[in-house]
């Protein structure tokens, strides 16, 4: 072990003793690694963009932890882990499907991955559990059941797991399926008398993700088919990930045997994103779209936009107002945007406003009405 690796191992061991005070920070640091260490500075490589933003927001806490370990102050710089260089085997021409082709065939959306998944205390357990499934699919947590409200990142995290597993093994049979799609496909297969093909598609998967599993509740034949699909995959060592808007115990009209299977895995509640998570999500969105935004401006947007799904819309609306005028979204631009938004809300249309507008248009006095 190199001196740098030895230093980092000792540092993590010390941080582990302090984990009770910094659980989320410690979890992220475990997956980071040092690139360079001098008397004045340490450069830390982060696993993905979300982790990098999270650690940058807690730079002072990391420096304090390092001080506890070294008894001297060092500056910390966070960088992204460099991508692995892929070996090119001969021949140069290959007929293997590209990663994007595999993702598409597996029902995955290109925009969801671990690199753009921001982590905070509201989703840290789900993130850690998902990482464990990537490392040990079919054995770590099976099934992994993620539940929470709209826009908390359930689908994002589930698809990120699928992509990582496919990256690790291109031959793995992976499929992402919304709950209503499973229902519709089964009904269609019955109508066309092709249930055998349906079962071959689903029962031999290495990873099945069903998004919004609550949609199969109350449908007797669908639940029967999913029960056998579940058993076939798990008994063959495959992994199942389920998402829902509620805990398995709260899904009405769900068969007891299915509920029992769901409760037998790891169930993780993902809470709505807090302020710091919304800030991180916004910064990631801005980076993806090459939008230059001041971090303080991002904080104001995150503070005033509680719905994580609305963050991107607000960002794009503000950006549209500065194109060709400013190079950066700053505090002044953001404050003006929200002021105008509030002004528009306060302007309520009254009956007298309508009468006045009609009279003006037709050149009629109100007294003549």
Description:
The protein has 369 residues and is α/β, with parallel strands linked by helices. It folds into three domains: 3-80, DnaA, N-terminal domain (GMP Synthetase, Chain A, domain 3); 99-269, P-loop containing nucleotide triphosphate hydrolases (Rossmann fold); 275-346, Helicase, Ruva Protein, domain 3 (Orthogonal Bundle), CATH 1.10.8. It has 16 helices and eight strands. The chain has helices at residues 3-17, 23-30, 49-57, 59-70, 99-105, 124-135, 154-168, 179-191, 195-203, 220-235, 256-263, 275-288, 295-304, 308-322, 331-346, 351-362; strands spanning 33-37, 41-46, 75-80, 144-147, 174-178, 207-211, 239-244, 266-269. The strands form two sheets. It has a five-stranded parallel sheet, with helices on both faces. The chain has a three-stranded mixed sheet with strand order 1-2-3. Strand 1 and strand 2 form a beta hairpin. Helix 1 packs across helix 4. The longest helix has 16 residues, at 220-235. One of its GO terms (biological process) is DNA replication initiation. This is Chromosomal replication initiator protein DnaA. It comes from Candidatus Roizmanbacteria bacterium GW2011_GWA2_35_19. One of its GO terms (molecular function) is lipid binding. Residues 140-274 form the AAA+ ATPase domain.
């Amino acid at each position: 072990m190199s001196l740098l690796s030895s230093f980092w191992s000792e540092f993590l061991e010390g941080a582990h003793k302090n984990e009770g005070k910094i659980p989320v920070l410690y979890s992220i640091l475990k997956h980071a690694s040092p690139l360079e260490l001098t008397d004045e500075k340490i450069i830390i490589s982060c696993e993905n963009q979300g982790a990098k933003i999270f650690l940058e927001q807690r730079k002072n806490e990391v420096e304090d932890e390092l001080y506890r370990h070294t008894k001297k102050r060092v500056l910390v710089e966070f960088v992204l882990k460099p991508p692995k260089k892929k070996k090119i085997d001969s021949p140069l021409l290959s007929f293997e499907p590209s990663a994007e082709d595999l993702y598409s065939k597996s029902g995955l959306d290109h925009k969801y991955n671990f690199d753009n998944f921001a982590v905070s205390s509201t989703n840290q357990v789900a993130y850690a559990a998902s990482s464990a499934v990537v490392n040990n699919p079919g054995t770590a947590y099976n099934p992994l059941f993620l539940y929470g409200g709209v826009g908390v990142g359930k689908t994002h995290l589930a698809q990120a797991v699928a992509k990582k597993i496919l990256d690790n093994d291109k031959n793995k049979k992976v499929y992402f399926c919304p709950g209503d799609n499973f229902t519709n496909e089964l009904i269609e297969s019955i109508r066309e008398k092709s249930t055998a093909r349906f079962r071959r598609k689903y029962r031999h998967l290495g990873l099945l993700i069903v998004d919004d599993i609550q949609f199969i509740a109350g449908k007797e034949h669908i639940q029967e088919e999913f029960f056998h699909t579940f058993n076939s995959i798990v008994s063959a060592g495959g992994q199942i990930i389920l998402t829902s808007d509620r805990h398995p115990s709260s899904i009405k009209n769900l068969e007891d045997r299915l509920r029992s299977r769901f409760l037998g895995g790891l169930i993780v509640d993902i809470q709505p994103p807090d302020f710091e998570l919304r800030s991180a999500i916004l910064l990631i969105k801005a980076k993806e779209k090459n939008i230059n935004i001041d971090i303080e401006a991002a904080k104001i947007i995150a503070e005033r936009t509680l719905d994580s799904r609305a963050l991107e819309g607000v960002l794009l609306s503000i950006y549209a107002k500065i194109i060709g005028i400013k190079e950066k979204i700053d505090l002044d631009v953001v404050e003006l945007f929200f002021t105008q938004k509030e002004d528009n809300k306060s302007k309520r249309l009254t009956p007298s406003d309508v009468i006045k507008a009609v009279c003006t248009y037709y050149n009629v006095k109100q007294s003549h009405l």
